[in-house]
Amino acid sequence: MTISPWFEVVCNVCLAAMFASAAMCLYRIVIGPNAADRAIAFDLLSIAFIGIICLLCVVWGTSWYFDAVWILTLVGFIGSAAIARYLEKGKVF
Amino acid sequence: MQIVLEIIAAIALLAGSFLVVVSAIGLIRLPDVFCRMHAAGKAGTLGITFMLLGTMVIFIETDRSVFFRGCLAVFFQFLTTPGATHLLARAAYIRDYPLSDRTAVDELKTFLPSMPDEIIGGQD
Fold it and tell me: Is B122 inside a domain boundary?
């Protein structure tokens, strides 16, 4: 389906906001004082990527890429849980 | 009909992206790791829920399967993100990461003693 021109402007504004928040997460990953800060910033970075995928699906008018959303959710959880277990126990498995 | 759907979706997408930006600003500015977990775990989850709702509203006439996939994504998001944040908070407290200067009381100290010396690997 085709979307209205004003709605495309709204989607571009939201895309700019999501890219700005992804840049802030990358800044926290670079300067983070310890490992838990970096893990939390990676969690929010995966959330920003999910939002970018949703907005690009809306702008391009296709739903082919929408499966990446819930797959990326589960992969992000596995990464955060593995980092937390490594910090707590000293090993992953 | 399409204009109504687009207005609803625009409100949801703007609210969601605003919440994610607020969460990222909190990730930059808050003082210690537990405050940053507070910012990223709550506002980020609500923001991405709003954005998924907006996408589902846009596709509800043309492609009906997006609705079910979006419901699945919202369910997984609410299931995983608070759990991951809780695991990371417990691990960070056990590893004795420093609290902020403005922390008034630390009630968890009597129940969960920090033990950074007993861990074999796990250097950050």
Answer: no
Let me know if residue B119 belongs to a domain. no
Q: Using CB atoms and an 8 Å cut-off, which of residues 25-44 of chain B contact chain A?
A: 25, 27-28, 33, 36-37, 40-41, 44
Size of chain B in residues: 124
Domain positions in chain A are 5-89
Contacts of B116 in chain A (CB under 8 A): none
Q: Which of B21, B55, B124 sits opposite A57 (nearest CB)?
A: B55
Q: What is the pLDDT of residues A22-46, one digit of tens each?
A: 999 999 999 978 888 999 999 999 9
> What single-letter amino acid sits at B94?
I
B118 occurs within a structural domain: no
Q: Cα(A76)–Cα(B97) distance, rounded to whole angstroms?
A: 23
Amino acid (1-letter code) at residue A4 = S
Identify whether B10 is part of a domain: yes
Residue A48 distance to chain B (closest CA, Å): 7
